[in-house]
TrEMBL record:
UniProt modified residues of type 4-aspartylphosphate: 52
Role noted for this protein: May play the central regulatory role in sporulation. It may be an element of the effector pathway responsible for the activation of sporulation genes in response to nutritional stress. Spo0A may act in concert with spo0H (a sigma factor) to control the expression of some genes that are critical to the sporulation process.
Domain Sigma-54 factor interaction residues, every copy: 141-370
Keywords in alphabetical order: ATP-binding, DNA-binding, Nucleotide-binding, Phosphoprotein, Transcription, Transcription regulation
UniProt-listed CDD domains: AAA
Identification of the protein by name: Stage 0 sporulation protein A homolog
PANTHER family in the record: TRANSCRIPTIONAL REGULATORY PROTEIN
DNA-binding recorded as keyword: yes
Domain Response regulatory: 4-117
Domain of life: Bacteria
Pfam family, one: HTH_8
Amino acid sequence: MNKKILIIDDEEDICSSLEFALEDLYEVKTTVLPQKGLEYLVKENFNLVLLDLRIGNVDGIDLLEEIKNIDKTIQVIIMTAYGTIVSSVDAIKKGAFTYLTKPLDLDLLYKSIEQALELQRNRETVRFEYDGSGEYAYHSILGKSAVMKDVFSYIEKLKDVDTSVVINGESGTGKELVARAIHYAGKRKDKRFVEINCAAIPEGLLEEELFGHVKGTFTGAVTDKIGKFEYANGGTIFLDEIGDMPYPLQAKLLRVLQQKEYTPLGCNEPISLNVRVLAATNQNLKKMVEEGKFRRDLYFRLNVIEIQLPPLRERRSDIPLLLQHFIQLYNKNMSKNVEGLSKKAESLLLEYHYPGNVRELANIMECAVLLSKDKIIEVENLPMELREKKERGRDTLDLTLGMKIGTKNLVGLTLQEAEKELISAALKLNKGHKKATATMLGISERGLRNKIQDYGLN
């Protein structure tokens, strides 16, 4: 199937000429109206947009941001006059693949389009390289440990039902991959998968991102904005870091889940929804409900089924599999020919406790493959920080093996009391440095902060 290209330019002659030049190679659609272009992108799946930097009174950079809000995987090539190259460079920073100056050089245009599409293909390959293949793979997730087999079994049971699911796990454990696996293994796989990180968007903008607005709702609303829920209609919406959603907005989300419809800001007509909702968090939602930080009714509406992802330190039998996977992956990305690890390097990686989980392991291996000069990764190819942490890890053994921490006798203490004393001693040992303390204890920084607050150790 030919790749689909959308051309948005306010000059009809340019639209016609480009369509004529590209129609033998791609499926092409054109429009001189920016809003019409956004509507096309919502209703159809396009691979690339050729976008004029100035379309009447509409700034192409603003339109670029709208396109990326609709689908961040769409490649965008900016078309510009010589006088606006500075603005074009700004567009590159905001997600455009490249810019081309008018009048367009067709050879350069063809080359740029193919490069952009190749980049898109590579990103899809990286994300789904193991999709459906291999004995220990399930839709881009790798694991042969018993606990990961249980996760795969959960996904298989949930893929074709519309039940809401909450995915729990520390940062870096692969919550997004599980959400994608549920979507792409199931009946909605041909529809859109839309993700939004509730913690990454300022509180005042999150409602607009989720539900959109109509033109003229407020100063600066020069066009309609399509919300993530509308864009995901028919498919799946993934609400990452749901625990960070502002409390007032939780009430509106609950109504959407209950009524299967919502009303964009400034609009009077509700929009019907057929969306599966998946959510993820590294926080304890049940505890947040008890503390009044998360709505109880929303918790029960979302948490029909819960999937608990284990930290990497609790599935160590998967580490050799992941090491080989990342070597292959980064060999391909960097045109390297690394074959494996030395015994010392492998031993260090197998013993490390990975507070950043699989994401941290991926970063370590990317660095190691890049720095390796031969076909074998040596200890010196591993990040300096990792080697330093191994030395600090000896303090952890000294700290936890005995029956005393400092002058405090652990005998007779409850588990919580012992944990409090352990955290307190680790903080003192690291002079209050939270990152070093979290690393020593083998927990995330956020987890450490929560425990410091719970135990009153501030």
